[in-house]
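Recall that a protein's primary structure is simply its ordered list of amino acids. Everything else, from secondary elements to tertiary packing, is in principle encoded there. The following example makes that idea concrete.
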Amino acid sequence: MIKKYKKLIKQIFKFGIVGGLAFIIDYGIFTLLTQIFNIHYLVSSIISFSVSVIFNYIMSIKWVFDVNKKQDTKDFIVFIVLSVIGLGLNSLIMYISVDIISIHEMISKIVATFIVMIYNFITRKIFIEK
């Protein structure tokens, strides 16, 4: 039983590292697109989120979760579906935060990313890990 919890804690730690790096990618691209190129925050968020999802997929499959190599195609499809839902959740949180509550988009991105990170860990653990 203790071994199972140690594995979960190690996995959460790895997920945190991958998530932190994915956040840096996501937030960095988002900042570049919104602040430097003046692209609308929702378009920037979709682009930056999508790039970070690709990084996150590769690292999650290779390092974080126990994945059966024979089910790569199925896992990839599930990952994409979960990521599209995460993108929708991210965009909804961004829209509500910025356009309805009037929170600055840079702060809203951090809040949205944190919430979606929790969603990502739970859903990937349930649907991808064997």
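The chain has one domain: 2-127. The helical segments are 2-36, 41-64, 72-100, 105-127.
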